[in-house]
From TrEMBL:
UniProt keywords, alphabetically: Membrane, Transmembrane, Transmembrane helix
Pfam families: Gate
Key word Membrane present: yes
Lineage: Bacteria, Bacillati, Bacillota, Bacilli, Bacillales
Transmembrane segments: 46-66, 78-100, 120-141, 148-168, 213-233, 245-268, 288-310, 317-339, 375-393
Native organism: Salinibacillus kushneri
Superkingdom to which the source organism belongs: Bacteria
Domain Nucleoside transporter/FeoB GTPase Gate: 43-139, 218-311
Protein name: Sporulation integral membrane protein YlbJ
Length: 399
């Protein structure tokens, strides 16, 4: 009966979305254009180099090398192998869903167990600094210094999630023999891993490009469809209806009603939620608390991307979902604690005044990087897609 009910709910949901798109074609088109613009200009060109580099590093055994070196601190802290340090670092540098992508890759390579992969994926999906500092802090709040607070809350919150999730699946964990730190052993592991992958360099590079493009195409599809769904929920007055129930919870924790609808939007899609939050009349601290939770939760759009990636392995999605809830609460709590020392006091020391909304350093590295992607991103995306088509065409001809 549960299976039949699930089938009915899924079919009804798909039918509802289809009818809503037909009834609201203009809103659906605008939301779709917004989603594809974000993917075309920012997401694809910024994530592609990280994805390709990660694939090559895994194939050449470099990840295994650093895994051996980082085992002494990754195991006690997070109860995951040292290779998790590479996933953690790349997840922070490139942004979601890189953590899930690399965790799935390590699991497919059998470098980590199923339980270790579920621990790892729960805290290695983070937003990249470009999005936090350039898009949110500068683009929405017009204050670069705010990005430091948001980044610290986001990344430290993820660290706490990793500490909590180290206890997940403890009974299933079989402790390994402790080995002393050895650079020689790390090089031996690197060499053995490279020998196991007997593909020539050209094949490795081509596979890295094709796999990265396929993943990014999937990510683009999720960004567009969730952008459309979010817009349709507003057009059909479903979001305001849900917001009325959320206002009661917000009143208990001391948050104004005006943040309820931006919060719901952020639960679906981070960018829109952060933008709407910045435009409300709530105090800056209240806005930051909501933005920190939304960033930590990742939004259903990113979670759907992660679920799609994990579906190719035996890694369960539920531990990741629990980690997102924990991350949201940790980041919001850190925002309350660190707002004064990291932002208000720093702003007073540098300007002698409490923050103003129109402050922004137009010569900021992050602002210039964002402008670079917006200007050259589409050309990089188009060039990469062309290269991918040529690689596939060349392989088809050889077959």
């Amino acid at each position: 009966m549960n299976g039949k009910l699930k089938s009915i709910l899924l079919a009804s949901g798909a039918l509802f979305i289809g009818i809503a798109i037909i009834q609201n074609p203009k809103e659906a088109l605008e939301a779709s254009q917004r989603g594809i613009s974000l993917w075309w200009e920012i997401v694809f060109p910024s994530l592609l180099p990280f994805f390709i580099t990660a694939e090559i590093l895994i194939a050449f055994g470099v990840v295994r090398f650093f895994g051996v070196l980082c085992e002494p601190f990754m195991r006690p802290l997070f109860n995951v192998p040292g290779a998790g340090s590479f996933v953690w670092a790349m997840g922070m540098a490139s942004g979601y869903p890189s953590g899930a992508k690399l965790t799935a890759r390590l699991r497919q390579e059998k470098q980590i167990s199923k339980t270790e992969a579920e621990r790892l994926v729960s805290f290695t999906n983070a937003s990249n600094p470009l999005f936090i500092i350039a898009a949110i802090s500068i683009g929405f709040f017009h204050d670069e210094q705010l990005g430091i607070l948001l980044a610290v809350c986001h990344y430290v919150g993820n660290f706490f999630v990793g500490i909590c999730m180290r206890f997940y699946g403890k009974k299933e964990y079989h402790p390994r023999l402790k080995q002393p730190l050895s650079i020689k052993r790390a090089f031996e592991e690197l060499h053995e891993t490279r020998l196991k992958d007997n593909r020539p360099f050209g094949k490795i590079l081509g596979d890295s490009v094709i796999n990265s493009i396929q993943t990014l195409m999937m990510i683009g599809g999720f960004i567009i469809i969730f952008s459309v769904i979010n817009r349709l929920l507003f057009s059909l007055n479903i979001t305001p209806f849900i917001g009325q129930f959320l206002q009661f919870i917000f009143s208990i924790v001391g948050l104004p009603d005006v943040l309820s609808i931006p919060f719901i939007a952020g639960m679906f899609e981070i960018t829109l939620g952060a933008q709407m939050t910045s435009e409300t009349t709530a105090t800056l601290l209240q806005q930051i608390v909501i933005v920190c939770f939304v960033l930590g939760f990742n939004g259903l759009s990113v979670q759907a991307q992660v679920a799609s990636i994990l579906a190719e392995t035996d890694i369960r999605f539920f531990p990741y979902f629990i980690g997102r809830i924990l991350h949201g609460f940790f980041a919001s709590l850190l925002a309350l604690i660190l707002f004064k020392p990291l932002y208000s006091d720093a702003k007073q020391a540098s300007t002698g005044d409490i923050p103003v909304s129109d402050y922004v350093n137009t010569h900021s590295f992050w602002a210039e990087l964002l402008q670079y992607f917006q200007h050259y991103g589409p050309m990089l995306t188009l060039l990469t897609l062309l290269i991918g088509v040529l690689i596939i065409f060349h392989r088809r001809r050889k077959e």
